[in-house]
Amino acid sequence: MYPMNEYNGNEADDNDTSNQSASSASVPATYTETERAIEAILISAIEPVRPGLLAELLEIPLTDIEQVCNTLSERYERERRGFVLARVAGGYRLQTHPDLATYMERFAMEHMSPRLSSAALETLAIIAYKQPISKTQIAAVRGVNVDGVIKLLSQRGYIEIGGYAEGPGRPALYVTTSQFLESLGMDNLDELPPIDNLIVSDESELSAIEDRFKDTDPSE
Known about the structure:
This protein is mainly alpha-helical and about 220 residues long. The chain folds into 2 domains: about 30-100, CATH 1.10.10.10; about 120-210, Arc Repressor Mutant, subunit A. About 55% of the residues lie in helices and about 10% in strands. Helix 3 (about 50-60) crosses helix 4. It is elongated and about 65 Å long.
């Protein structure tokens, strides 16, 4: 039988060891400097980052980059993170986990302006009067890149792809939708006013046009 003081001491040591083991189990292993550097680059990047560029920036072999990225991808899945490391268009990028798409859609709608900007209204008018029309043709009329505006108008349901042009690449041709007509209170495109009548004379007129394209409350 152990003396009381010696027994208590051993019991305390055992408890300390158990607590340390439990604490270690709850704390994930630290990330390496290379893993942290890749994360920092991918978070800052707008487009997917090529493995070759990562290898150049970190000054390590390309094979190491691919191995580290695979390890990170597996670790994120194992830890059930809200994002994944995906291989997209020949490069790597961090993106939200597919399982969380519902929440991301709610977030996007919450932060979406209910009104269309002047640029969006201008693009929508071009499509309405020139349809079917490609993005390249729209950009030529406006003189600026229209990718973002086209995506927004598609998300709002005002335009859709109505076909594809003949020729190299077969570019998509955009047309307006029935929702577009509903927003303007029109039965068909023949009711569109002559283009000369679309010149807005003051801010109140512009505001009235913008109000036509407010998003409808889903609860209604």
